[in-house]
Amino acid sequence: MTATARAAATARPADTPPPLPPPPGRRGIELALLVGAVLISVCGYLAVGLAKGHALPGGALRYGAGLGGLALLAHLAVRLRAPYADPLLLPTAVLLNGLGLVLIFRLDLDTPADHAAPTQLMWSTVGVLLFMAVVVLLRDHRTLQRYAYHCAALALLLMIAPIAFPAVNGAKIWIRVDGFSIQPGEFAKVLITVFFAAYLAANRGALARAGQRVARLQLPAGRVLGPIAAIWLISVAVLVLERDLGTSLLFFGIFVVLLYVATGRTGWIAVGLLLAGIGAAAVGTLEPHVHGRVEDWQHPFAGIAAGEGPGQLAQSLFAFAAGGMLGTGLGQGHSSLIGFAMKSDFILATFGEELGLAGLTALFLLYALVVACGYRAALGLGDAFGSLLAVGLAALPALQVFVIAGGVMGLIPLTGMAMPFLAQGGSSVVTNWIIVALLLRISDRARAPRPEGSEVAGGSGNWEAVR
């Protein structure tokens, strides 16, 4: 034993354990997984070229270099600014984004007049750059808590803006100017989640105290629940006016999930499902655009019976059936029969047809991995706002995947939302990269070593701070 070690041993009491070593950052594991994600995406790109043109596609090297360069830049930002972040989040996001680019490239080959893959790659670049900006500039996620009401106001403005623009496919959710289009609701969902998390964290004590009792559910006091309920009602009302049923359902789901997590009362789940059912039934009956989608859902093969041919939902169901267990192979399906929404709403049908049930299961597991990483980060935090924000951000893709997959598989009516990372849409892919960046920043805080004597991360005790 050296003199320095003997001095340290004598300075520390005999019954005090030595300080724990800092947890590994696991950035090497992240880099290895990123290489695998890029290689899988490039192999998919090559498989599409071989299947459709019986030759290697000419842009394979450019595609692989572009996706690999973006992945490397994102990894360097995480390595420098969030060294303890979850090593699974970034590779999973890169793989989902890469698979989305492969599918859009494959569908471009069936629509020579409409090439969307280059635009999607450009938006993916913007998304990664914003991801890096969030990771580098946002040193502490708790900074967002101070701007909760600013986030709510900005979210409402973003949702109101499309009302002044013409409807697209029956819904007023786009801002289109000189060929440039953006969907503000995609950004609003992140802002409204920040507001919900901040407000519920600040008022968790009052929410837990008894208010009026309705049946077996103990409601919080009206003055506490009132502001957040008002923001939610205004948001949903605006979205219903814009005929954006999918985003309104998403906002309602986030509201109920965070309210349940903040209060710990399971009755909110039952109330949420009841209110969602009543609202969906009312809108589906009174709104013609939504009513048409409900009719298509209830009678997907009505067009065939009437001699008009199969509609989009029927073609989607045929695609899933044709895929079977292992699929027809990349580039060997007939997704062009679905029609104009094959690159957006119905891109999951292409995935199911060409990669089968096995591919769909792997895809859903990738989304589940993102959600699980968010929940694990929430469990590792000691602050209520961070835990609620992580749960809300992780619930966004979970609810979105459920709503979209249920729609294209005929389980629920179609909502017109974009599959996270997979579907064509610049606003969607940029927003999803921002969500991953925030989850990485939160997971870095949750996994970072604590000073000696501070609260240890993890365990159910941290949830007591939320409830």
Structural class: mainly alpha
* Low-pLDDT residue intervals, each spanning 5 or more residues: 7-15, 455-467
Query: How many distinct beta strands?
Result: 4
Strand order, main sheet: write it out. 1-2
Mean pLDDT over the full residue set: 82
Describe this entry's structure for a reader.
- With about 475 residues, this protein is mostly helical.
- The chain contains 18 helices and four strands.
- The strands form two sheets. The chain has a two-stranded antiparallel sheet.
- Helix 5 packs parallel to helix 17 and helix 7 packs parallel to helix 10.
- The N and C termini lie far apart (about 50 Å).
What is shown here, in short?
The chain has 467 residues and is mostly helical.
Keyphrases for this structure?
two-stranded antiparallel ribbon; 18 helices; two-stranded antiparallel sheet; 66% helix; disordered C terminus; globular; 467 residues; mainly alpha
Q: What's the layout of helices and strands?
A:
Layout: H1 3-11, H2 27-53, H3 60-81, H4 89-108, H5 117-137, H6 148-160, E1 175-177, E2 180-182, H7 184-202, H8 204-208, E3 213-214, E4 217-218, H9 222-241, H10 245-263, H11 267-286, H12 288-298, H13 302-305, H14 312-323, H15 347-379, H16 384-408, H17 426-447, H18 461-466
